């Protein structure tokens, strides 16, 4: 599994500005389904693909598969083969993925406040 290097995480136009860390975080979890996947794995622990798909019903199988692959490549999610026949895998958060808990919790709290105040999203 390859993890993103700082050069891959931070855009070239960032130029070591003080907001580069925000850019890096957005790069890692900024895609639509990434924070949702991390949220579900934080809440429920390791899940098989179908269980995760059922838990995030609005995402297509292709998008979920691509998102899990992205999260694996960045070192946030681990994929473990549970059985060969029938073939089953379980997805879990790595230690780095688990360290996103406060970020995901903050996103959840802010989003709930925003939705309550403005009926946005």
From TrEMBL:
It comes from the Archaea. Keywords: DNA-binding, Transcription, Transcription regulation. GO terms for molecular function: DNA binding. Signal peptide: none annotated. InterPro entries: HTH_HxlR, WH-like_DNA-bd_sf, WH_DNA-bd_sf. Gene3D superfamilies: Winged helix-like DNA-binding domain superfamily/Winged helix DNA-binding domain (1.10.10.10). It holds the Pfam family HxlR. This is Helix-turn-helix transcriptional regulator. It comes from Haloterrigena alkaliphila. The lineage of its organism: Archaea, Methanobacteriati, Methanobacteriota, Stenosarchaea group, Halobacteria.
């Amino acid at each position: 599994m390859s993890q993103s290097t700082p050069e891959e995480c931070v855009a070239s136009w960032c130029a070591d500005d003080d907001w580069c860390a925000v850019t890096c975080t957005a790069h890692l979890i900024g895609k639509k389904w990434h924070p949702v996947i991390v949220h579900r794995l934080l809440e429920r622990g390791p899940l098989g693909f179908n269980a995760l798909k059922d838990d995030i019903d609005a995402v297509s199988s292709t998008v979920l598969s691509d998102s899990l692959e992205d999260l694996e490549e960045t070192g946030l999610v681990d994929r473990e083969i549970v059985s060969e026949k029938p073939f089953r895998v379980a997805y879990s958060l790595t230690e780095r993925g688990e360290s996103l808990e406060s970020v995901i919790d903050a996103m959840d709290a802010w989003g709930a406040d925003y939705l309550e105040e403005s009926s946005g999203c």
